[in-house]
Write a structure and sequence with these properties.
GO molecular function: ATP binding; kinase activity
InterPro entries: P-loop_NTPase, PRK/URK
Order of helices and strands: EHEHEHEEEEHHEE
Strand content: 25-35%
Shape: globular
Strand order of the largest sheet: 1-9-8-7-2-6-3
Number of strands: 9
Structural class: alpha/beta
Helix content: 25-40%
Protein name: Phosphoribulokinase/uridine kinase domain-containing protein
Pfam families: PRK
Length: 202
Amino acid sequence: MTAETFAALAERIFERAPRLGPVRLVAVDGPSGAGKSWFAARLAKAADIPVVHTDDLLDGWDDQFSFWARLEEQVLGPLRHGRPATYRRYLWHRKAFGGHPVTVAPADAVLLEGVTAARREIRPELSFSIFVTAPADLRWRRALARDGADDVAFRAYLERWRVNEDRHFAADATAAHVDLLVDGAAEGFDDRYERLWPAPPD
């Protein structure tokens, strides 16, 4: 493993050409509890770019993969054409979309974070893609701690979610096609992360 700073990664990203119209779309993918949100937040801060979380566009647990049409219509389509994207977040406690609209300008780079963010359909338009991974038992503990629920119903939803995402990643071969594989289990500082693959650039 090799440590790299988020600032250095941001520089590498801005060296890439835009592929989603005028936007460099950066995907941070990986299984639940791997550390995607932590990684995305620090990269976005270092690069000073907006983040779109796919969880905000899911219409509940059963929309794990089928939300993509909504993402395309409300976010990717407008950005691709140099227009601001606007959407409302899914409010999980209300089981409905609502709250104030979120607007994302067609910035030089936009970060898309969440399960399937680097899926096959969007690969040709990604300027940079990252897969965050961690051991299954650690991911399970993190998910329970993060969502603050440890009842039978939540565990059933989470178990089904994990089975589905494992099948997706195997069929999609996501990790084999990304630019960067990150160790989400590594304990480190807020300004750096542990890279599993590839080797550092010369």
